[in-house]
């Protein structure tokens, strides 16, 4: 940019030559420069004003058009447009093997109060007590009229109760959104599901935590938003579970039993299709645990997993299977059953006098204690203990329940020869019905080890807390021995102690067990027993194992009270199979073979 000098030399010399004042030239140049600068500033300001006017006009038009569109539209609540997949933060559902809901979440509200905002505290208390009769009136008056600024009234309320509180109209009564855990089937599968409670709580939300059963065992998985709301699928079949619980409750009442439990398991996978323990509870209103007395008296006690019982003669098939596996006996080997069997000062008796000898098959069919003890003597204590360990009868069940580790088998302090003999016929070693079901499933699975599970195949399995027994799939006994053991159990049903368990068309095999209950003061009760039936069906192609146990049953239908499993547990188990087999899709077979693996199944003429 070229600037004109204020005192140009040529003009100064010319002015001096004419006798003019050179300072006038500088003043004139300064005036002209100032006018030029002022004109440029005015042009710049006018340009800025023009731009601002255009912007203001555009903004005015935009606001006007937007207001016009609002005026012409229908009033609606604003919607959030989320194109990406949402993260599900709520607790996942629990469903059965067919996708039917066992546990889910329900949106509800919590009720709380801010006493400083209340208009009529005492009048409000009276109205609240009319809606919620379980509230403590005096305590609420004290809380509302004292110095408290926040008071929980109800952690969850129904929509009807919420509307009734709304109608009170006191501004100090407020609501917070809340999710509650809902078990839509009530008591059904209560011990498996367990229950839940609120953890960390706030006005607008509350954390749901599992307190027992599957809810507790899979608490982390159910709360993990990374699963995207995927439900936890159990191996249970809701329809079969309902049928089993219905029959079990009826049988418990009919047999005057203190308690009852049953386990229905798939032979080849160990999946538990149904499992029940009575008495039970409603997970929606979980009762408080017992603080004293016998834990098994509590409805929270899971008899199938936590109940440790001497399971009586159901153990005899294990002794025979081991002896056949070791080559010590065959089904036709004759065993000395002359009684009583003396061992030191102890005597072992049979329920009946079976004569001097019985075949190994008939030892099982007639449930001879003496015959079983003789077989165990050939095996020896150390080998017996090792074999029972492979069947998983010496450690807690690895099933996916938080209560499972508490169900520890009760072992003899010294595994002597006498202990081995009594354990052989089911006394001196206490196990859970679930452990017995898994052991029977192992035999029915051609002798391959089966581990119980409550998770449907392909679901998220919790790692087993410990390795015990033989790993899943290991061969505990040979297939031929397993088939012979099943044939013996079929003979028990067709011509032995479980004759009431012969369900037409389903070829049930099984073993009864009646064990005197231990007296906490020492010894055993004379009139209290645990009666059990452990069965497999159909025996020609095993699919399911059923173990059913009654606590202190008494059949009063005859002239004298009867407590043995053949009169108590077996009829209830037979009715259970009759009810659930069609639900399981099993087709009845009209004919039954006379022999199975060379073992006679029917009585001779």
Topology overview:
Layout: H1 9-18, H2 22-72, E1 94-95, E2 101-113, H3 121-131, H4 137-145, E3 151-157, H5 159-168, E4 173-182, H6 190-193, E5 195-201, E6 206-212, H7 213-217, H8 219-223, E7 232-233, H9 238-254, E8 259-266, E9 272-278, E10 309-310, H10 316-325, E11 334-336, E12 341-343, E13 346-348, E14 357-359, H11 360-365, H12 369-379, H13 381-390, H14 417-424, E15 430-431, H15 433-444, H16 479-495, E16 509-518, E17 524-537, E18 544-551, H17 569-583, E19 595-596, E20 599-600
Parallel strand pairs: 1-7
Antiparallel strand pairs: 1-2, 2-3, 2-4, 5-6, 8-9, 8-18, 10-15, 11-14, 12-13, 16-17, 17-18, 19-20
Q: How would a crystallographer describe the biggest sheet?
A: 5 strands, mixed
Number of strands: 20
What share of the residues lie within helices? 25-40%
Termini separation (Å)? Answer: 135 Å
Approximately how much beta-strand content do the residues carry? Answer: 15-25%
Radius of gyration: 42 Å
> Which residues sit in consecutive blocks of at least 5 with pLDDT less than 50?
77-89
Keywords: Carboxypeptidase, Cell cycle, Cell division, Hydrolase, Membrane, Protease, Transmembrane, Transmembrane helix
Pfam families: PBP_dimer (PF03717), Transpeptidase (PF00905)
Protein name: Cell division protein FtsI
InterPro entries: Beta-lactam/transpept, Beta-lactam/transpept-like, PBP_dimer, PBP_dimer_sf, PCN-bd_Tpept
Q: In words, what does this structure look like?
A:
It is built from 17 helices and 20 strands. The protein has 605 residues and is an alpha+beta fold. A hairpin with a 5-residue loop joins strand 1 and strand 2. Helix 10 packs parallel to helix 12 and helix 10 runs antiparallel to helix 16. The chain starts with 8 loop residues before the first helix and ends in a 5-residue tail after the last strand.
